[in-house]
Specification:
Layout (H helix, E strand, L loop, with lengths): L4 H17 L5 H7 L16 H4 L13 E6 L3 E6 L8 E5 L3 E2 L7 H10 L2 H8 L14 H4 L6 E2 L7 E2 L5 E6 L2 E6 L8 E4 L8 H12 L6 H4 L2 H20 L7 H16 L7 H17 L3 H18 L5 H11 L3 H4 L5
Parallel strand pairs: 6-9
Antiparallel strand pairs: 1-2, 2-9, 3-8, 4-5, 7-8
Helix pairs in contact: 9-10, 10-11, 11-12, 12-13
The structure holds zinc ion.
The site of zinc ion has 6 residues, from helix 8.
């Protein structure tokens, strides 16, 4: 999950509870009672940007939009592919319309941001699903501001969840990117993943119910029990091996072998390796190979990590540029001070 999500969730629950306990208080009075401070994030942390707030809400670097927002049976609205989308394509990149500080949200500042938005954008925000809305009290801005990293992007917030997602989202330099992780057919729903990959069907259902308030009926959750058990075992194994890799850092060859095993397991779930997993694991293997001065292997791994980072972060991102430097000269990683 996104950093700070748990703290923000706690804050929201407290604020919504306060609203229930004190119906005479306005949201502004509640905000006053729960004073918080909106702070500027560190560069690249994806936090609130004053500049971003004044941009047109849906900023997309994708010219020919490959999606439309449409009703999805049982899910409200969602994103539907308007054409075939290939793995690796950027679907949309946008700036947040609202952004809370990491860790503790200052509602008064969120209200200020909200008040400055055009009425049509405000309507779109309030139209989003609000799992924290108090019963019988309609929607609240307190609950409605709920997205990864404590920010709200109008298009990407429409992407529904699937445990066998065909796209994924991430933050790069204060903007959120949604990219295709597995080929999507025209007319298919574009779904991202809200939770960790390494959970069994039961664990995922509990997590989604607790955090997001819905029961998942994605193809992975609805498949035959025998296949479900087989895939649950693979997911658990991926999680266990992933945790074991750092323990093997003193034995780089063994750790790299585990990386290879983890990557091959993803494919046994009937889908390509998620790009974010590829970036992380291949970069790990690059550093491990480098620590053994196995330069040919280090080159192969960093080329793979770099190729995946072009998808997850984009070619001009700090991470892709850094990896590009290592592709040209793997040993330059040692100058940065290799520490595994
Ligand atoms: Zn599911």
């Amino acid at each position: 999950m996104a950093e700070g999500a748990a703290d923000n969730d706690t804050w929201r629950q407290e604020a919504v509870q306060m609203q229930k306990d004190n119906p005479e208080l306005t949201t502004a009075q509640i905000a006053e009672k729960k004073k918080g401070e909106l702070v500027k994030p560190e560069k690249g942390s994806g936090g609130y940007s004053k500049e971003a707030r004044h941009e047109s809400p849906v900023q997309s670097s994708v010219k020919d939009l490959p999606y439309r927002i449409a009703p999805i049976p049982g899910k409200g609205l969602g994103l539907i592919a308007t054409r075939q989308i290939s793995r690796g394509e950027l679907i949309v990149e946008e700036s947040p319309v609202l952004m809370e500080r990491q860790g503790f949200m200052g509602f008064s500042q969120i209200q200020e941001q909200f008040d400055q938005l055009e009425a049509s954008v405000q309507d779109q925000i309030m139209d989003l699903h609000d799992k924290n809305a108090p019963d019988g009290n309609g929607k609240t801005l307190l609950g409605g501001v709920g997205s990864s990293n404590g920010a709200l992007c109008l298009v990407i917030s429409r992407a529904n969840h699937s445990c066998i997602n065909n796209c994924y989202h991430g933050w790069v330099d204060g903007r959120e990117r949604l990219f295709c992780d597995a080929d999507i057919a025209s007319g298919e729903e574009i779904c991202t993943n809200y939770i960790q990959w390494h959970l069994t069907t039961d664990q995922r259902q509990r997590e989604l119910q607790t955090q997001f308030g819905f029961a998942c009926d994605c193809p992975a959750c609805m498949q035959a029990e025998s296949l479900q058990k087989k895939h649950d075992a693979i997911r658990l194994k991926i999680g266990q091996l992933d945790q074991s890799i750092p323990e093997l850092y003193p034995m780089p060859s063994k750790a790299v072998a585990l990386v290879e095993q983890v990557l091959s397991l993803y494919e046994k779930l009937g889908r390509p390796i998620p790009y974010v997993a590829e970036v992380r694991h291949c970069y790990d293997a690059f550093q491990l190979s480098l620590s053994e001065r196995n330069i040919p292997a280090a080159k192969r791994w960093i080329q793979r990590a770099y190729a995946a980072s072009l998808i997850t972060d984009g070619p001009s991102s700090p991470q892709a540029l850094r990896f590009e430097r290592f592709v040209k000269n793997p040993l330059s990683r040692l100058q940065d001070g290799l520490c595994i």
